[in-house]
Amino acid sequence: MRLLNCNDIDNQYGYDGHLGVVHYEGHTHFRTWAPLATGVYLNLYLDGEGNNKIETIPLERRENGVWFVEIMREIDGDFYTYTYEYDNCRQIETIDIYANACGVNGKRGAVVKFERTNPEGWEQSTRVDCQKPTDAVVYELHVKDFSVNPNSGVPKYDRGKFSAFSVDGTYFEDISTCLEHLKELGVTHVQLLPIYDYCTVDESKNDDSQYNWGYDPANYFCLEGSYSSNPYNPYVRIREFKELVMTLHNNGIGVIMDVVFNHTKETEQSAFEKSFSGYYYRLNPDGNFSNASGCGNEIASEHKMVRKYICDCVKFWATEYKLDGFRFDLMAVLDIETLKLIRQELDKIDPRILMYGEGWTGGMPALSGEKLGFKHNSYNFPEIGLFNDTFRDSIKGGTFDSYSRGYIGQNFHAVNYINRGMAGSCEHSQLPNNKDGCFAFNPSQTINYCEAHDNHTLWDKLSICAKNESEQERIAMDKMAGAMVILAQGVPFIHAGQDFLRSKPRIPKEGEPINELTIVDENSYNAPVSTNGIDWSKKEKYIDVFNYYKALIALRKKYPHFRYAYRDEVEKHIRFTNGGDNNIVCYTIIDTVDEQETTLFLALNPYKEEKYVRFPEGGYMTELDENGQENSSVLYGGTNMPPVSVMVYRRVN
Ligand code: CA
After folding, report:
1. How far apart are CA 40 and CA 384, in angstroms?
2. Helices (H) and strands (E) in the chain, counts
3. From residue 361, how far is each of 298, 444, 631 by CA, in Å?
4. Closest C-alpha to 645, from 621, 619, 599, 611
5. Catalytic residue among 329, 427, 535, 591
6. 525 alpha carbon – ligand 1 mean position (Å)
7. pTM check: above 0.90
8. Could you tell me the domains of the chain?
């Protein structure tokens, strides 16, 4: 491929104005940026696919390589593409990279009046009032997983769709499911796996045989059509998604969008390449596509018009859909300057909007590491959160070694990361500084988790690394992990169904041995619904585990002790104490609630047997035991802790 000098292009043609479609009463403006094109044409269509072109109209070249045309009639609901011409001969047709609505399978953009997409009550719908990131409890959820099974309690028509979220009164027998489940659990935010338009599900086939997580972006400004009741009508998916957002907002739950600006599914055939070949992706010096995403390409976020594109896109979702946060997939593919700019733009819209991501890549980037959103560069972007893989693996054992065990599995080497993790993974004077363990500038920068859509569920991991332990013992390990995630300083993140021992069952392929590794799915991105769909009957079976998670969340919300945003607060309020055993992590959190000093004492017993833990001075009652219960008996001096448990005590005298 011809290598462009993108710095020169940015200097000469960089453009700050609006791109895309602007709809006015009776006329419409189209703008696209293509500085080296020798011609650009607008193709108008009646439909999102098929042979139904209305007309082709040339655009006029304007300043900074922007091409413009004004259509002086009503074209609401029409579809469009651009044809870019290079070197006065080569013509290529593509969807507008700025199209914010589209037809089936995202082949053509659609001209939509967004004010007509608002469901009744939308104007009153507001973001949840999350004052600081550490007030959030995030629940990661795939739209289809949520409701696809009949035991979701959702009518058949809505299963697996955006509209399932707007169904209330959802139960399986007397167990709450779907929306009622989210309300009962008490999470503050739902983080949806990709809901932008992705490639791998054929939207024209409305069936349950297709499944994908959606990390294969097609159109960044458009919604995925397969989650709508009608992917052909561009209005429908927009209205149904707004109903989802509004319903969750009305129930006090925010919506976080998973954005994948690190790569596109297509490379040569992508809309980026067709619009302006060689500009939107990072290339190696030999002209080949660099591949820091591990998916065939990496987006050149540092180029001026790519940076603008990503910013424009995030701003669009934040304002048009009133979203409450953004989770950046493989965030270290993006450059820090772009990430900081996005944070600044979000602050202008609403500083409560959350922003965090994965501080790693899926391959070697073509830009030097210190410029990128890696976790080890965290101090350069303290306002942006990062998934805490160090704490994750210390809790449960190595993610990429199924048999390795963590602190909950009596791996005591992990203890030096567990104490730091509980204190928000930032510097604390009682703990020697440690690069990995103390990566967070503030506790609000760490996203604490031990299960996500990637890799084994926690329960499946335990079924491998603790396969010789009883189910009861594994449940204790699971609950201990959940307690650590939810009660640690930082932002707790739970994978949907983790709260009732979610599993991803797998049918071994023919000829494969049947063992603990082959009967669960480690990477279920395109696995069938039988693997990925949430089985709500498991909630009934493991209702005690669910009630425990619910109690943990309630406790976190009850006490500001668990939700410090800044490291100096952690330093001031948290004191590690000597509980009598180096592997038992314990500490007090002293803070004032309603003008009253309240001391909480947390102790973590990773041993398989009861262990005596020494209290600090005073008498303590049990605020939360291994079953999520309180007990008002006053204890002095110390007490025996149950095996593999987290206990929370409160000082009463
Ligand atoms: Ca799609």
Report:
1. 39
2. 15, 27
3. 10, 22, 47
4. 611
5. 329
6. 15
7. yes
8. 15-94 (2.60.40.10), 133-561 (3.20.20.80), 573-651 (2.60.40.1180)
Active-site residue, 10 included: no
Distance 78 CA to ligand 1 centre (A): 19
Q: How many CB atoms lie within 10 A of CB 598?
A: 16
Q: Enter the tokens of residue 282.
A: 């990072």
100 residue type, one letter: N
Please report how many Cα atoms fall inside a 13 Å half-sphere around the Cα of residue 215, on the Cβ side: 17
Catalytic position from the list 96, 240, 358, 393: 358
CA 160 – ligand 1 centroid, Å:
15
Which residues lie below 8 Å from residue 346, measured CB to CB, with a gap of 6+?
Answer: 314, 315, 318, 326, 353, 355
> Roughly how many angstroms between the first and final C-alpha of the chain, as a whole number?
74
Cα–ligand 1 centroid distance for 201 (angstroms): 6
3-state secondary structure 152-196: HCCCHHHCCCHHHHHCCCCEECCEECHHHHHHHHCCCEEEECCCE
For residue 77, give both structure tokens.
């609901």
Q: Is 78 a catalytic residue?
A: no
Q: What's the Rg (C-alpha) of the chain?
A: 26
* C-beta separation of 489 from 424 below 8 A: yes
- The identity of residue 305, as a single letter, is M
- Ligand 1 geometric centre to CA of 440 (Å): 36
Distance of CA 372 to the CA centre of its chain: 19
- How far apart CA 474 and CA 496 sit, in angstroms, is 19
At residue 381, what are phi and psi to the nearest 5 degrees?
-145, 65
Q: What is the mean pLDDT of each run of 10 residues along the chain (653 residues)?
A: 87 97 92 98 98 98 97 92 96 98 98 96 96 98 98 97 96 97 98 98 90 98 98 98 98 98 97 97 94 96 98 98 98 98 98 98 96 98 98 97 97 96 97 90 98 98 98 98 98 98 96 95 96 98 98 98 98 97 98 93 98 97 98 97 98 94
Q: Which residue has tokens 């507001």?
A: 126
Ligand 1 centroid vs 216 CA: distance in angstroms? 9
